[in-house]
């Protein structure tokens, strides 16, 4: 999954720390672990994206599903 090493926000280029679900897992829990339904973000872009799409700005209480594990992959590049 080499495409997942950096944030998907155009012009950002930071290492991936968070993964966003393109189809909400509330609606499509079966796609929770499907790569095609995941989009890589750095933490700051993911917070912005989540605030926009889910209507809360702080990100307080939000636990990124894959945080940490993908960051380790990026460190080896
Ligand atoms: Zn970013």
TrEMBL record:
What InterPro entries does the record point to? HNH, HNH_nuc
Superkingdom per UniProt: Bacteria
Domain HNH: where? 11-52
Q: Which organism is it from?
A: Aquamicrobium segne
Its protein name is HNH endonuclease
Q: Which UniProt keywords apply?
A: Endonuclease, Hydrolase, Nuclease
GO molecular-function annotation terms?
endonuclease activity
């Amino acid at each position: 999954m080499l495409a997942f090493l950096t944030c998907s926000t155009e012009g950002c280029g930071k290492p991936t720390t968070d993964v966003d679900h393109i189809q909400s897992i509330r609606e499509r829990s079966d796609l929770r672990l499907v790569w095609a339904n995941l989009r890589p973000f750095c933490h700051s872009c993911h917070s912005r994206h989540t605030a926009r799409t889910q209507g809360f700005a702080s990100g307080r209480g939000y636990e990124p599903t894959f945080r940490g594990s993908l960051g380790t992959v990026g460190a080896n590049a």
